[in-house]
């Protein structure tokens, strides 16, 4: 699925050199990043409680895990209702009646002078002003029972306008003496009126009968204030007490109790206490240490690669972030659909990425590792969340094998979604139900999660491939497109070399598959391995068809050798100019290793009379390096075999076998396979595959007779 290269050239960028440092210090740094990221995820986790829904029937009992108090809203409502019962009706004098009484007194003051005899010391203005005060005070007067007045006194409200009086009749009534006495005292308190003037105004109002109206607005306001004074009732629940009984209908009271218990558990964790912080850190270190031990035993190459370790940690941390954001959205959302989602599918996100970018075995470990971590950290149903995420992750890993196109990721996620449906249905059957609304919600949620996973993976893959220099099969397929600029240049300008590359690609891919190497990398890498020949195509035999002059006849053997060798360095420069992936550049540099351009070396030796000490063999060798991977070693063998096979006379199986054995032996004796870890068994398989491929290429056809016209025609 991918290919990484442990040894890289010194000419790479600083970032690439930093990634390629294979020492414990850098790998330890990556491990510490993983430890702290995982510790944060484990430490700041939501408290997980039994998921219950309003107006459903409880299937099991729920027990209080800690001592806690919860706001008993039902009891509080009863207490408030009892307090509101003490608030009686409140009445006021009809404002229209007060206004009419005032107008009548004004008219009498204007039309008759008798009032001057009654109040000889008062002026008209004084009487008129006292009348205004009377109207205002009588308008502010409220009449109710003593209990209501006592309630008003306890509130931050003025009780000056409240009077202990309730009329027994619904018709017009006279007000008691107490009312007029208090009004007289309040008017007199200003000190601007003569007593006889006050008495005159009071007597004119006192003799009337008044219509009392119920002041409903004031009653509502008073009841609201009384309701606020009743404190919320908190009921204490002891740890171990049953909160919900089986078969009981879930009410808002139960939900409030569960939320209060969740808050109590969260407070008891004391997140910022040193001991709890150390506990989360130690737990994270245990998880990372176990993972490191597993990789050391089963994936030693992966553990030694800083590049792959950094990529693995990056994907794990991205998955944890994705999970935490999902949890936050589900817990804080007010949407009814989101609140009914029980089993978010998160782990397959990492499984797909790791399977594509690293390997299925590492992806399988990551699926189990992350499923456990997410299960113990997220506020979900532990058992079912673990089962669903683990099963879907395994399905994803199975379906991700040999993925070649990015759009296939959507197909993989679709298959994983289909695989999740039977699991979700099993959960419903385990509740002794054939189907319910929650099943359809969970299926719809699974579809949404897998769709989101596909979109995220497709979006992140190019960034991760670029940042960590991982060459996936999907990228290789894109580089195999004949419309690629370099491939078109090869086909148009050096068709002989292009045909050589096409044939070699088939050989190399078949040999790679025979030993379990990356066949696609071999195929695509060989298409670009000779791109340096486009700069001087006429100096290479495969491009000299139809020409009568061999340009090498005009050059010395050393000059010819240097021109031949230059296609490696020219190819590297051209590849970097067109930003080809590093594995392609490695193929260009390593497919000849440090072998000798023997033909021109031999000619130079002949010019020197066979004196080997007079010829510098290093000038006739390719710059290398030697093949560092099995793939580049295969390409080296196939390149030499394909070129030699063009001039072989004995194309039988025996002749081809002898030729291949000779070429492989020469390169092995020259030390070209010393750094690529090819075993003798693998070399034997490569040779067998090459023989079969060459036999198919050089197969014998029957000789068809020349057509002659039949007699009579």
Query: How many individual helices?
Result: 30
Structural class: mainly alpha
- Total domains: 3
Oligomer: single chain
Give the overall average pLDDT: 84
Task: Indicate the topology.
Elements: E1 2-3, H1 14-20, H2 24-43, E2 62-63, E3 68-71, H3 73-84, E4 91-93, H4 95-111, H5 114-118, H6 124-140, E5 142-144, H7 146-154, E6 162-164, H8 177-188, H9 195-206, E7 212-214, H10 216-229, E8 234-237, E9 242-244, H11 252-269, H12 274-298, H13 300-304, H14 306-332, H15 336-339, H16 347-357, H17 360-377, H18 382-399, H19 408-430, H20 437-468, E10 471-472, H21 473-479, H22 485-493, H23 495-515, H24 519-528, H25 557-577, H26 582-590, H27 598-607, H28 630-645, H29 653-669, H30 680-697
Parallel strand pairs: 5-6
Antiparallel strand pairs: 1-10, 2-9, 3-8, 4-5, 4-7
Helix pairs in contact: 2-12, 2-14, 4-6, 6-8, 6-9, 8-9, 14-16, 16-17, 16-18, 16-20, 17-18, 18-19, 19-20, 22-23, 23-24, 23-28, 23-30, 24-26, 24-28, 25-26, 25-27, 28-29, 29-30
